[in-house]
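Tutorial handout. Part one gives the primary structure; part two gives the three-dimensional structure as tokens.
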Amino acid sequence: MTQITLEIPDDLFSQLETKKDSLQAIFINALKNYLAAENFDITKTKTYELCGSLEVNNIETDKFPETENLTNYAENIDQILYS
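Part two.
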């Protein structure tokens, strides 16, 4: 394991003293979260996997008269919700 030296402002350090986790555990978790966010790939999410895989069958367009060419996607959702 690599050792590092950090300078932490006194006001932040006093807040850390009230926490149950050690500074090392907090720092390691923060570093893991940072690295995960940096490597975030939207194509690896469940939402991306589901995009396009769901569709509405038997759309009754007469229920949405203000919408032309109703599709299974959300490009017209504002007109439907806010009209």
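Part three, for discussion. The chain is about 40% helix and 0% strand. The mean pLDDT is 76.
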